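Appendix B. Worked example

We walk through a single record from start to finish. Start with the input: the chain for Metal transporter, Micromonospora citrea, length 164.
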Amino acid sequence: MDTTHRIATDAVLGLVLLVGLALTAGLLAVSWGGLYWVFDCLAGVAAASLALLRGPRRVWPVAGGLAVAAVAVVVARVADLPQEPGPVTALALAVLVGSGIRTLPGTTAVAVAAGGLTVVGGTWLTALPDAAGLTAVTVVNAVTWLAAVAVGMVLRAVDRGHVT
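Next comes the structure step. The output line below is what the pipeline stores for this chain.
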């Protein structure tokens, strides 16, 4: 990917994440009330920033994104807040997981996929016993993780010349 394409891609991603943060904050402020929206936005900003800092063979943004999402899941459960990670954090995490699977060495890529699945599992566990854990947040996180794994694997195969 050339520099111009990378800058354009990151600009669009940044705009999508920014709009997502604003919409999510507004919706949470109206529906949940209080200051919960601040917590969700902080997690979203942290994950989004890491997604924009990703790069080929960079482990630290991916590991950081997984950590942000995992901490958000635990804090939300302990503090009796709505489920996390929110939609922006989930999207940023999907970008990081897909990028990690695409560019990192094999065992590290597998660890990234497993870390993402662990976050999805944590989200599901925090929803129990409501709706057997299949809330909208759980489904969004599961679908974005699955899409990230699929896209990451396809792009990895294309980059290595296994698919033309």
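Two observations about the output. Residues 3-159 form one domain. The chain has a mean pLDDT of 92.
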